[in-house]
Design brief:
The structure holds 2 protein chains of 2 kinds. By secondary structure, chain A is mostly helical. Chain A is built from 11 helices and 3 strands; from the N terminus they run ααααβββααααααα. The relative contact order of chain B is 0.12. The chains are: A mainly alpha, B alpha+beta. The interface between A and B is large, with 76 and 52 residues.
């Protein structure tokens, strides 16, 4: 058993990394304005950040556990400390899995029921091809995401919008449905719900929700034009929105219209590339520099 | 008849009818056999008897119609009114559902309450119109 000193640095570095990636890093990224120029790359960066934070937290807990096992003359206090760290890690993992499960279950049930209601109450209208039209007074449009998508437009929206504006709205919703933006949102909502209420932050979820809107805007802009989309946004901006969206980050109709006046996303190639590199580095660098040495050390020690 | 049965074809033009839309008052609505529903519907569109039967059976499973046994035949009548279904749908569509997770089941075209006033929106739009060259 000589020659191996349990490496206390590994869990400490990983725990520190997890804290930075879960706290200051998302707060900084949420405040930054440049991600809105490259929404696709920024969305990847957010997912890399979440994955890196999760891996670091799990790695910290597991490396503590190996410390406890490898300790030659374990002292009771240290063991309790190690055990507590491991318990915290496992709790985090269990909460996350539970949160993802309950959220996914309830969302799927609500969507299934909503699809049924749309199929019963919606009608078909030549002005909104591919969509179900609901005779309702607020002007709104949405999609029910999932394997069986439904695009929904209210009759009031049809009255408010011109044909090319309707097309822009439908292309926006189709982009959400096609790219399964709901899955990204669901993942970040599950992540948010997994944190205890006291330390829960909306920053990551709101930023991701905003990026997803901008991505759908970019798709609608390519297919239906910036101007019809901008006009549709202006006309529908007065729509009553859900209570939970009040005071949320997200992205306002005003910001989306202003963005349509800017050059389209492909103009920011360098920024996008740099963002993808940063996203890759977030996951790869800690794995290579901290986790890999720890694992090789571990395998060298084990018979 | 005090009530109306109508079936809507799916908008993709697929041959099967996915669902039926029902309007009518729950109280005092007489139950109807599949044959009667089919007769009422075939006045306005071509629809197969078996399609009506399948759809009614499916709606019964979903709780949208009540299925009553009358000897060897089944009788159907709306279990909920159109207004009740509309109210339920609007709850979700407008996001007034109370949920512990407070997550939206839908992806909306505009999902954020903008504090922006109409004037700011118009200014932004006219800027966009200028850049678009119209």
């Amino acid at each position: 058993m000589n020659g191996f000193v349990p490496n206390v640095a590994t869990p400490v570095v990983l725990a520190g990394l997890a804290l930075v990636l879960a706290g200051p890093a998302p707060a900084w990224l949420a405040r930054a304005h440049w991600p809105r120029r490259v929404p696709r790359a920024a969305l990847v960066l957010w997912q890399a950040l979440a994955l890196a934070a999760l891996l670091a937290a799990l790695g910290a807990g597991l490396s503590v556990a190996t410390l406890a096992v490898l300790e030659e003359r374990p002292n009771a206090g240290v063991l309790v400390l190690y055990g507590a760290a491991l318990a915290v890690t496992l709790t985090v993992l269990a909460r996350l899995l539970w949160s993802a499960h309950t959220l996914g279950y309830s969302l799927r049930a609500r969507r299934r029921r909503h699809r049924e209601l749309i199929d019963i109450l919606g009608r078909i209208d030549g002005r909104a091809p591919g969509a179900h039209v609901l005779d309702a007074s607020p002007a709104f449009a949405y999609c029910v995401p999932g394997v069986h998508t439904r695009l929904v437009v209210s009759s009031s929206a049809l009255e408010t919008l011109t044909d090319d504006e309707i097309r822009a709205v439908l292309e926006h919703e189709r982009a959400h449905a096609r790219a399964r933006h709901d899955l990204v949102l669901e993942g970040f909502a599950a992540l948010r719900n997994a944190f205890p209420r006291l330390v829960r932050s909306r920053a990551a979820f709101d930023s991701v929700a905003a990026l997803v809107e901008l991505l759908a805007d970019d798709a609608a802009r390519r297919r239906a034009g910036a101007l019809p989309l901008g006009r549709a946004l202006t006309r529908l901006a007065g729509t009553p929105v859900p209570a939970e969206a009040l005071g949320a980050g997200g992205v306002s109709a005003l910001a989306r219209i202003q963005r349509l006046a800017e050059p389209p996303a492909p103009s920011y190639r360098v920024l996008a590339t740099a963002t993808y590199v940063a996203a890759t580095a977030l996951v790869v660098v800690p794995t290579l520099t901290v986790a890999a040495p720890w694992l090789s050390q571990l395998s060298a020690y084990l018979p | 008849m005090e009530y109306l049965w109508s079936a809507t074809h799916m908008n993709d033009g697929s041959v099967h009818t996915d669902d039926a839309s029902i309007s009518g008052a729950r109280n005092g609505v007489p139950a109807a056999t599949v044959r009667q529903v089919h007769d009422a519907l075939s006045g306005s569109r071509e629809i197969a008897y078996t399609t009506v039967m399948t759809v009614l059976d499916r709606l019964a499973k979903k709780g949208a119609v009540e299925q009553l046994r009358d000897g060897r035949a089944y009788l159907y009548r709306p279990a909920v009114t159109r207004d009740e279904l509309t109210a339920e749908l609007m709850h979700e569509a407008l996001g007034t559902v109370d949920g512990a997770d407070r997550a939206s089941a839908l992806v909306r075209f505009i999902d954020t309450a903008s504090p922006d006033d109409a004037a700011a929106l118009r200014t932004a739009l006219s800027e966009l119109e200028e850049r678009s060259g119209s």
